[in-house]
Design a protein that fits this description.
Blueprint lengths: L2 E8 L8 E2 L8 E4 L5 H7 L17 E4 L12 E4 L4 H4 L6 E4 L4 H6 L8 H4 L4 H8 L4 E8 L1
Antiparallel strand pairs: 1-7, 2-7, 3-5, 4-5, 4-6
């Protein structure tokens, strides 16, 4: 699958429920995957996907599920590689499931936010706390897959 485009709102100026671009590395990746809707996080937060083999690697623009070191631990968390991370991530089993084919310049401009309190973000008022701590953060409103 390829991620064709992403609709991004800067500085929380949109009215729809965004997904925060959070826990991003300054130069390596941008991450997200916790919904602004706590009910959605509760429904999907503990569901996981089976591991898949790494086929193309972690190249720039490839979209990859985050995971722990446990088998089959991929869930809603994802990241987009800003650089070729194949050497560091392929051997750990991080398999890409998509590629940004339009709008990588937008991904490059997503604000860097180091937000470690993912449990709080997934709960009631979590997005409000995130916005307060990171007023210049960007939010992915919608991504299209074709």
């Amino acid at each position: 699958m390829k991620v064709a485009t992403a609709e991004v709102v800067s500085n929380a100026s949109g009215t729809r429920k965004p997904v925060a671009a959070r826990r991003a590395s300054a130069t390596v990746s941008r991450a997200g995957g916790i919904a602004a809707n706590p009910a959605m996080n509760q429904e999907w937060g503990n569901k996981t996907l089976k591991d898949e083999p790494v086929i193309k690697g972690n190249l720039r623009g490839y979209v990859v599920y985050g995971a722990t070191m446990d088998p089959d631990s991929r869930s809603t968390h994802f990241f987009i590689n800003l650089v070729d991370n194949s050497e560091a991530l392929d051997s750990q089993g991080f398999a890409a499931f998509g590629e940004v084919i339009d709008g990588m310049d937008v991904v490059d401009k997503l604000a860097y936010c180091e937000y470690r309190d993912q449990r709080a973000l997934a709960h009631q008022n979590g997005m409000d706390r995130f916005k307060k701590q990171f007023p210049d953060a960007d939010y992915i409103l919608r991504a299209y897959i074709r």
